[in-house]
Amino acid sequence: MRQLRDEAEQFDRDLLEYALDTSDPTTRAVFAEDSAALIGLAIALAGIGLHQLTGNAVWDAVGSILVGVLLAVVAVILIDRNRRLLTGEPGSPKLHDAAVARLEQMSDVASVRFLRLEYIGPKQIFLVASVDLVGDDAESSVARRLRVLERELERNPYVMDALLTVADPDFEDQ
After folding, report:
1. pLDDT (tens digit, 9 = 90+) per residue, 12-52?
2. Cβ-Cβ contacts under 8 Å for 156 (sequence gap 6 or more)
3. Strand pairing of 159-166 and 124-133?
4. At what angle do helices 25-54 and 2-21 cross, to 10 degrees?
5. Contact at 8 Å (CB) between 51 and 60?
6. pLDDT (0 to 100) of residue 132
7. Could you tell me which of 96, 169, 87, 172 has the C-alpha nearest to residue 127?
């Protein structure tokens, strides 16, 4: 029984995390609005119920005020989340690690020295990376190899644009 409860709590956390962290503003807005509607209904029911039980209209007014506060909080959360996406929010650490792994799987890439992912739309990222290439080709050959690698990355429907550069051999950080 405890395991089932733990799994349910993990699912709830994952659903809420997904809804708030997704780059799709429609999914986030629908989730937030529907959640606020359900919570607002419960608050309104409690306010009206207490008004009916006590005969005191203050409970109905308090319920209305709480619903208004709930809607304001949801609006602020949505505004902040969308603002972060509009101003160039970087990809998550999981996404960063997946992109590094994908780049390092490419036969022409020896290592990834720098990677920046930025959301540019719902489920769409812009990838900028500095990579070490295998071998020691001439500059014109390197440029062609980089363009081929970029096009290969862009075949992924979530990567809208990829920009690869040759890494400085003295640069160490990713």
Report:
1. 557 777 777 777 778 888 888 999 999 999 999 999 999 99
2. none
3. parallel
4. 120
5. yes
6. 80
7. 96
- How far apart are the C-alpha atoms of 161 and 49, rounded to whole Å? 56
Q: How far is CA 105 from CA 20, 85, 93, 109, 136, in A?
A: 31, 29, 18, 7, 19
CB environment 79-89: b (16+ within 10 A), e (fewer): eebeeebeeeb
Please answer whether residues 108 and 134 qualify as being in contact, where contact means their C-beta atoms are separated by less than 8 angstroms.
yes
Q: What is the DSSP letter of 159?
A: E
DSSP string for residues in 84-144: HHHTTPBPPHHHHHHHHHHHHHSTTEEEEEEEEEEEEETTEEEEEEEEEESS---HHHHHH
* Alpha-carbon radius of gyration of the chain: 25
SS3 label, residue 166:
strand
pTM reported for the whole predicted model: 0.57
